[in-house]
Amino acid sequence: MTNHSFDEQFIFKRKTRAWTFVLITIGITGTLYGFLSGSAERTFSNLLLMGYYFAAICIFGVCFCAIQYVSQAGWSASILRIPQVFARLLPAASAILLIIIAAGIFTTHTGLNEEGKEVILPYLYKLWAAQGITSPASENYDALIAGKSAYLNIPFFFIRLVSYLSAYSFLGWLLVKYSRNEDEIGGILNHKKSFKISCIFLVVVGFTVPLFTFDTIMSLEAHWFSTMFGWYNFSAFLVTGLAVLTLTIIYLKEAGYLQWVNENHLHSLGLQVFGFSIFWTYLWFEQFLLQYYANIPEEVVYFYKRQEPEFNIWFWANIVLNFCVPLLVLMSRDAKRQMKLMKFVCVTVVLGHWVDYWLMIMPGTTGPQSHWYTEIGFIEVSIFIGFAGLFVNLVLSSLSKFKALAPKNHPFLEESVHHHIN
């Protein structure tokens, strides 16, 4: 047995809490500036981006826990509390995302449709959620969208989103509940329950995550479609979640917690960040290559927009940040075991996938502004900072409510503490 105390409890210091409120205030300021300066569509698009990003990390938290239970992994037992915190935040992240989407759909403005006519449009999902889009008598009529109206209609859209997010949140809540029960009473019963719930979750998420990403992001450009889009996004969920998980563990280590976590755990996390970065790149390249090679107009228009001068630099920066940096920095064994290098790569991945999501959303919503360097401005930066502050605040606040930073009665805890990679 080890001499580690697994009863340590995280204390959310007042100074740290105050800094998170400063970041949240910056985000609120940027949001108000966006709406008051006449950039409501741009602001809604950025709120959708960050709401989606927040939800994606929380879904990852449930997914990570489920994978560990189903695979009977021992190495990760001592760090499960962190992804459990992400899972606990999923109901809040889901509510934020749904509020943003509802506000964007039901708030309208006068704008130009694809034919250049001045019509009433919602700020989000204007290609299919605008009034009269399926009525042949309306100037908004779109025959292609009318053919998809059985699926792309507002009531069914919200039913699907609420169903997906409720299922993920409920199953994540059960995993956290069983882990806390395990801490209280010990035994193997709650671990077996966690295994069963994890199996159910992985089946549910496997079938529904592609649909969730189709609805939330791909339907912004409802004329375009890609069967690889869901898995491409899911790979981004995994790698960004791993990066945020690693950064959280490093923060706690530097603050004097998680003394049982060592360079071997960091190595395992680094391997996964490295591996899923390669996987994400494979899916990115497949989606791009197949549509480029086929050269079908309704498919390549998606990439054509992103090759415009205002977006082209960011399009290729996406590959540099999310593929080249993890590949070149984490290729060696030693790099994965160094906290500073891991921190650098994980911050790069978090920012890189923000660019990735930004490229999925902005060309099809706001379109190009003026120059590549004006595409990302105060609104984008401030809303990102605000959500980062909100996420850190909620994560650390939720973490402080756990009685212990490790699931102390997990059957594989000792194996995790002695985790070693040759």
From TrEMBL:
Protein keywords? Membrane, Transmembrane, Transmembrane helix
> Does the record's keyword annotation contain Ribonucleoprotein?
no
Question: Keyword Transmembrane helix on this protein?
Answer: yes
Q: Which domain of life is it from?
A: Bacteria
Transmembrane parts of this sequence: 21-40, 52-73, 85-106, 157-176, 197-218, 230-252, 273-293, 313-332, 344-364, 376-396
- Record's protein name: Quinol:cytochrome C oxidoreductase
Question: What taxonomic classification does the UniProt entry list for its organism?
Answer: Bacteria, Pseudomonadati, Bacteroidota, Sphingobacteriia, Sphingobacteriales
